[in-house]
Structures are given as structure tokens and as C-alpha cells.
């Protein structure tokens, strides 16, 4: 009888539920990057990731390839991969875009949300979280996104909803980074209540003012976190002048 030859693991190997190991590896590592469990700017290797998350090398390699394609992992010669840093330029660009889009949303939604919408928004804005607890932060951020996307949906403009959704997704990693350092839950609850009141009264001016204040407060939270972790910064990017933030 001949010897049984063990074939090398394939990234296409499926679990008992029929899900490919490489897909599970991708989702797991992607989540760890977004939640800053793998810190921005840190160096990782396929072996590190396979061991840390208990995946085979082939599945980890396939996941790393996909994460490199979307820019969350950056190849570093003879070292492995760098987790995409969070830069001041990214922060400034994304929050500037968010402010433009959210102001448009609240101005269009003012006076157009019905009582069911307002009750739903009220429930969403009661969310809270425990700083440093990644699952708690993730749940809080999901409810926060739902709150803002509900306002966008009230405009009736699907393109605005799409742009805001993409922007919030790109900001999620920055939010995790900032929320882990201090609890902004009570501040955001107060801001959300003010937005709801303004929308109910059809007061577009107040809704815009509170929205701008909230976006800039969130930006300041993330900026403070970045400046307290200088190793994560792209040193070629300076802090934007105040005139650029208006």
C-alpha cells in the first residue's frame, strides 16, 4: 500500500458551513484593522497573522493579497506589510467631505421627517459605549451611522445616502482610534437630540449649525488621538491651517 500524501492547504478550503477559509481570514483581519486592533502603521507578516488569528498560511496569504489590493495593507520590502497609517491628510479630507454632505442632508431633511422617523432617530441617539471595548465601540458606531444615514434617507436623494455611507465607512477606523481614548457618548447624545429637535421644527439653520459643530468635534477627537500617537503620523503631512478647516 502506498503512502498517503498530504496536500498543501488551499485558500479555497471551506469550513463546515461552506464558507471559504480565505474569506473568513479576510473578514477577520479586515475587522481587526478597522477596529485598530492591528494598529495603524504597524508591521505584520503572513506568519504573524496566521498565528494570531489561527488561520493556515494559504488562507492568510490570500487575505493579505486582498487587503493589499484595497490599500489597508502596504507591502514593505523584506519586512512584510504595514497596516495603512492614519494620516492628517486623510483625516482632513474625509471630515471636510463629511461636513459638506451632512450639511446638505440636514438642510434637505428639515421639516420632511415624519414622527416615525423622529422616534427612530431618538432611539438611535441613545446609544452609548465603553471606551477600549472594541465590540462596544463597533455597536455604538453602527448606531451612529444608522442615525446619520436615516437623516440622509429622509432627503429622498439616494446619491446623498450613498456618498455619506461610503464616507462614514472610510471614517470608521479613525472613529475607533479616537473613541478608544475618551468617552464622547454623552456629548454626541446631546448633539443628536439638538439635531432631532431642529429637524422636527423645520429649522434648517439650527440643524446645520449643530451638525457642523458635531462633525468638527469628532474631527478634533480623532486629531487629538493622532497627535498623542506621533509614531502613527506621516511626518511629511503637517497640521492643516485653521482656514483649511472652515
From TrEMBL:
Signal peptide: none annotated. Keywords: DNA-binding, Transcription, Transcription regulation. The keyword Nucleotide-binding does not apply. PROSITE patterns: HTH_GNTR. It holds the Pfam family FCD. Residues 19-86 form the HTH gntR-type domain. It comes from the Bacteria. PANTHER family: GNTR FAMILY REGULATORY PROTEIN (PTHR43537:SF45), TRANSCRIPTIONAL REGULATOR, GNTR FAMILY (PTHR43537). This is HTH gntR-type domain-containing protein. It comes from Afipia felis ATCC 53690.
Amino acid at each position: 500500500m502506498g503512502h498517503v500524501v498530504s496536500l498543501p492547504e488551499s485558500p479555497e478550503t471551506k469550513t463546515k458551513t461552506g464558507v471559504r477559509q480565505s474569506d473568513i481570514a479576510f473578514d477577520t483581519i479586515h475587522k481587526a484593522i478597522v477596529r485598530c486592533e492591528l494598529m495603524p502603521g504597524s508591521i505584520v507578516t503572513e506568519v504573524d497573522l496566521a498565528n494570531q488569528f489561527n488561520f493556515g498560511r494559504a488562507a492568510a496569504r490570500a487575505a493579505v493579497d486582498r487587503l493589499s489590493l484595497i490599500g489597508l495593507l502596504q507591502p514593505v520590502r523584506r519586512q512584510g506589510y504595514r497596516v495603512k497609517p492614519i494620516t492628517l491628510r486623510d483625516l482632513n479630507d474625509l471630515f471636510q467631505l463629511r461636513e459638506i454632505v451632512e450639511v446638505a442632508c440636514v438642510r434637505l431633511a428639515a421639516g420632511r421627517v415624519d414622527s416615525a422617523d423622529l422616534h427612530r432617530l431618538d432611539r438611535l441617539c441613545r446609544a452609548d459605549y465603553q471606551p477600549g471595548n472594541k465590540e462596544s465601540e463597533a455597536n455604538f458606531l453602527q448606531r451612529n451611522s444608522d442615525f446619520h444615514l436615516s437623516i440622509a434617507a429622509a432627503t429622498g436623494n439616494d446619491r446623498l445616502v450613498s456618498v455619506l455611507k461610503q464616507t462614514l465607512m472610510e471614517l470608521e477606523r479613525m472613529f475607533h482610534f479616537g473613541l478608544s481614548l475618551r468617552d464622547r457618548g454623552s456629548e454626541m447624545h446631546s448633539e443628536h437630540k439638538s439635531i432631532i429637535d431642529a429637524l422636527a421644527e423645520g429649522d434648517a439653520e439650527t440643524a446645520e449649525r449643530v451638525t457642523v459643530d458635531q462633525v468638527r468635534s469628532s474631527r478634533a477627537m480623532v486629531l487629538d488621538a493622532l497627535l498623542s500617537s506621533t509614531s502613527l503620523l506621516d511626518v511629511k503631512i503637517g497640521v492643516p491651517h485653521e482656514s483649511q478647516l472652515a
